Amino acid sequence: MYSDTTTPTMKTAQSRSVLLQKADVRVDIRDYLSRTRMAYHFLNAETVNIEAVYTFPLPIDGVLTDLHVQIGERELHGVAVEKSQAQEDYEQAISEGDSPIMLERLDSGLYSLNVGNILPGEQALVTVEFLEVLSPKGDEVRYELPTTLAPLYGDPAKRGLAPHQYPVHSIFADNRFSLEVDIRGCLAGADIQTPAHSTSLEKDDEHIRLTLSAPTSSMDRDFIMTLRSEALPQAFAVSAPDKGGHVVLAGFTPRFAAASPARSVKIVVDCSGSMGGESILQARQALLRALDRLRPEDHFNIVRFGSSSTILFRKQEPADETHLQAAMAMARTMDADMGGTEMADALDKSLSSASPAGMPEDILLVTDGQVWDMASVAARLARRKHRVFCIGVGSAVERGVLSTLSSKTGGEAMFVNVHEDMGKKVFEHFKRMTLTPAGSPAFDFAGAKPLAVAPKKLPPVFDGDMVLTCAWFD
Questions:
Q1: Cβ–Cβ under 8 Å, residues 389 and 411
Q2: Which one of 7, 386, 447, 453 has the fewest CB atoms closer than 10 angstroms to its CB?
Q3: Residue 4 has what pLDDT?
Q4: Which of 407, 417, 395 is nearest to 275 (CA)?
Q5: What is the pTM of this model?
Q6: Can you tell me the distance from the alpha carbon of 390 to that of 398, in angstroms, rounded to the nearest whole number?
């Protein structure tokens, strides 16, 4: 059941809803590269011209490559320009009676689309295209497509949204989407699972075609596809011309032995109202599996939060039988009954739980991530040398918040659907947490000197997780 999720709708500047009739999704996957086209069909059901606004999520690692809008018989194509210039051009076109479009990236994985002067009864077809590199983690490649934006706790202005960009949600909306996925290359032989949706497969030696079992599905939960194979390529490189030179995208999967010192683990669990239903069941399971992974030499504590926070022990305690039994008893009765989502306060409270001198400290955060902003607390945690490893649960996880929180602290974010094996996922995450990551990783291009690389500094490298880089050469 996914009844706890409401759906964002397109709205006018006066906050009247514009009907989203459907969305058509086409995904093409070639080896580790994916291209996704999302075509949104809107209808102005008002009796006056409208300017419409639609705030929606895209994958946080997706790179927007194209925007096309058809309004009646008019066709418009997007061009990337500086933000202030785009806003000025858009307002000028509105004042002149034209029908401009403006797509703005608000934050990690969050976009806002403005479409001006849609006539009464007129339809608007908005097509967004983005590319994404699908990085293997172990023997699995994961494709995730957010189809809904759950109501978030806090102030959207902290994520850079203007009032007209605040999402409007409706529990009665039944927005639907169709889906077609074409898979070729090294993933064509993978075992494919779609844990949140019923799908059909057509398969031969070189190609997989995946569709929804029904013509459409409700946009009330994210689409997740896992592709698992023991024969995934451990490295790849692709090159393309770029501004008189060429650019290279490369990736490799490191394998290395690493030390596993005793750690102090602070487990922070979301018990707010948004975690009701399946999400809190997942959180209980994640907490119990995490407790199973603790070793006698480790220390731990548990913070639960909603509108306020509670901490199990006064300080970090050893993972012995007495303390683990107390923690498991609490976990089995834990519920989503603590009100709002004051996640920042809970993470700050975890900082006050003192660890043995010299012991590395990490935070394991279990949540649906449904808050607007965590930038300031991420900076505090990084200063205190606390890595945050997130486990996102629920049908509409706020991936942008959790991924940013993990990346800024040197941790990692992982997202688990209700139909996936939580025990396996927690085991993989604890492996990242307890094994020392590779120090000062860097790519060597066989002596060639790139003009630039991105990212400038590689993130922490964990055993079995692919590392990516882009490099420009003349």
A1: yes
A2: 447
A3: 44
A4: 395
A5: 0.86
A6: 11
Rounded to 5°, the CA angle 319-324-326 comes to: 140
How many DSSP H helices and E strands does the chain contain? Answer: 7, 28
Which amino acid makes up residue 348? D
What does the DSSP 8-state code read for residue 335? -
Q: How many CB atoms lie within 10 A of CB 232?
A: 20
The helix/strand/coil state of 213 is: coil
- The helix, strand and coil proportions of the chain, stated in percent and rounded to the nearest 5, come to 20, 40, 40
What's the CA gap between 373 and 439, in Å, rounded?
A: 30
Amino acid, res. 253: T
DSSP letter at 152 equals -
Question: Cα(373)–Cα(354) distance, rounded to whole angstroms?
Answer: 26
Pairing of strands 50-57, 223-228: unpaired
Q: How many CB atoms lie within 10 A of CB 446?
A: 4
Under DSSP, the state recorded for 229 is -
Going from N- to C-terminal start, the domains of the chain cover: 7-228, 235-257+438-473, 264-434
Radius of gyration of the chain (CA): 23
Confidence band of 319 (pLDDT split at 50, 70, 90): very high
Distance CA 280, CA 315 (A): 25
Sign of CA dihedral 83, 84, 85, 87: positive
Picking from 127, 219, 216, 126, the residue whose alpha carbon sits closest to that of residue 173 is 219
471: its two tokens: 């490099």
Which tokens hold the place of 345?
A: 């306060």
Task: Tell me what pLDDT residue 1 has.
Answer: 32
Spatial CA neighbour of 168 closest among 154, 181, 152, 179: 152
- Sign for the CA dihedral angle at 48, 42, 218, 403 comes to negative
The C-alpha atoms of residue 143 and residue 226 are separated, in whole angstroms, by 6
CA pair distance 150, 8, nearest whole angstrom = 7
* pLDDT, tens only, 26-58: 999 999 999 999 999 988 888 888 877 887 888
- Determine the topology of domain 264-434 in CATH: Rossmann fold (3.40.50)
DSSP state of 455: S
Return the amino acid letter for 280: I
Secondary structure of residue 324 in the 3-state scheme: helix
The CATH number of 7-228, from 2.60.40.1730, 3.40.980.10, 3.30.365.10, 1.10.10.10, is: 2.60.40.1730
For residues 426 and 423, give the distance between their C-alpha atoms in angstroms, rounded to a whole number. Answer: 5
Phi, psi of 24 (to 5 degrees): -110, 125
